[in-house]
Design brief:
By secondary structure, the protein is an all-alpha fold. The chain contains five helices and no strands. The protein has a single domain (3-85), classed as MazG-like (Helix Hairpins), CATH 1.10.287.1080.
């Protein structure tokens, strides 16, 4: 991934580390422990919050909510043994 998006790789690596080396009190580990249903529920909630933020027309709120959504999508990727590069390749195929 380009340097511009390297934060996604950094977050991905932290999420992978939490999966491999659970840390007590970690929200990421809480999601993994609760399983796919909880992870998907959070993605749905965050997607709804992005929509609401967009309807509110607040760039700061939109940015915040999209960051939450990307984090939860990252957790899903790790849970499903995928990587951001898999998503980038899929997008490239569609171009």
């Amino acid at each position: 991934m380009s340097e511009k998006f390297s934060i996604l790789d950094e977050i991905f690596n932290v999420v992978v580390d939490r999966k491999v080396n659970p840390k007590e009190g970690s929200y990421t580990n809480y999601l993994f422990d609760k399983g796919i249903d909880k992870i998907c529920k959070k993605i749905g909630e965050e997607a709804s919050e992005v929509i609401i933020a967009a309807k509110n027309g607040s760039p700061d709120e939109i940015r915040y909510e999209i960051a939450d959504l990307l984090y939860h999508l990252t957790v899903l990727l790790v849970d499903q043994r995928l990587e951001w590069n898999d998503v980038m390749e899929e997008l490239k195929k569609r171009r």
